[in-house]
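Reviewer 2 asked us to include a model.

Predict the structure of this chain.
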Amino acid sequence: MGFIARWHNNNTAFHLLGKPRSYNPDAFQNDMLWNTMRHSLDSEYWRKNSARWDKITVPVFSAGNWGGFAMHLRGNTEGYMCAASQHKKLRIHSGSHFHPFHSEEARSDQLRWFDYC
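Predicted model (structure tokens):
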């Protein structure tokens, strides 16, 4: 629980929870850590709350990093391959987790993609 608890407390709770907005009080749920501990990762709870790839039809631009192979890269590639969208692009870079994606070359690539879609 070390990583997920630290990530949840430092990121989700600090940056996202805040005060619920009156027009959408359920926008953020603060029970993620509890649900992670309470439900086996191989359970109906998580299957029910996983992406339904056949329902994803909006354009997909997924950017992954070879250095993030242990966690994020699998989501990048699986999302790209399984989404039902007609318009998909997968960009995989090396180097730091963030810099190649925020470079001028990557920015131009993103703008071309969104102009296309």
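The two ends are 40 Å apart (CA to CA). The CA atoms of residues 64 and 92 lie 5 Å apart. We have added this to the supplementary material.
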